[in-house]
Amino acid sequence: MKLTTLTMVTVDGVMQGLGGPDEDRRGGFERGGWIASVFDDEADAFLNQVYQRADAFLFGRRTYEIFARSWGTWPDPGDHPIWKALNTRPKYVASTTLTEPRWANTTVLSGDVAAAVGELKAKPGGELQVHGSGVLIRWLLDNQLVDEIILITVPLVVGQGTRLFPATGPDMALDVADSRVTPKGVTIQVYRPTGRPQYATATP
């Protein structure tokens, strides 16, 4: 399976608490719930298509718990692509603290996560998807386990909160596989890591 990450970020790179004011208040974050006002039908349709492609999901513990108490408890709305994907396909959680997941079809990866992810990627299928899960995504990128990066950037500057990419970290060259802009100015970029960037002195 191809490992694909999907992250919704603001222009200043914040990924924290997009779903609501109380979704994630770590670090005193007070500006949650920023996605709703700028997410349009075209961005929503793209997101639905991505979830429909998933053969399995991989989460960090915190994002898994957010999803489990929302998508995992909401009644079946009837043919909703995201609800259907999350509630019918296998879910894996990289965690050393989660021991008894209550969301059906969940497996906890608590040992050698790199080996476990490698085994999942070796299985036949389309995509192993990672949504949210910033700490996990950064670790996966550090370990060169990501095949495709989807960034959905909304036209907002939040000014505080956890960023997807840290102030210091590994460098990465990217090929652009797809790029589009929705009517409300949401940019959708699909990247494929290609190793380290080339550095040179700029010339006229």
Structural write-up:
- The protein is an alpha/beta fold and 204 residues long.
- It has a single domain, classed as Dihydrofolate Reductase, subunit A (3-Layer(aba) Sandwich).
- Helix content is 24%, strand content 25%.
- The chain contains five helices and eight strands; from the N terminus they run βαβααββαβαβββ.
- Strands 4-3-2-5-1-6-8-7 form an eight-stranded mixed beta sheet.
- Strand 7 and strand 8 form a beta hairpin.
- Helix 1 packs parallel to helix 3.
At CATH level 2, the architecture is 3-Layer(aba) Sandwich
The proportion of residues forming helix, as a percent range, comes to: 10-25%
Number of structurally distinct domains: 1
Shape: globular
Question: Helical segment tally?
Answer: 5
Number of strands: 8
Unreliable segments of 5+ consecutive residues:
none
CATH hierarchy class name: Alpha Beta
- What's the story with the biggest beta sheet? 8 strands, mixed
* Helix and strand element order: EHEHHEEHEHEEE
Strand composition percent = 25-35%
Radius of gyration: 17 Å
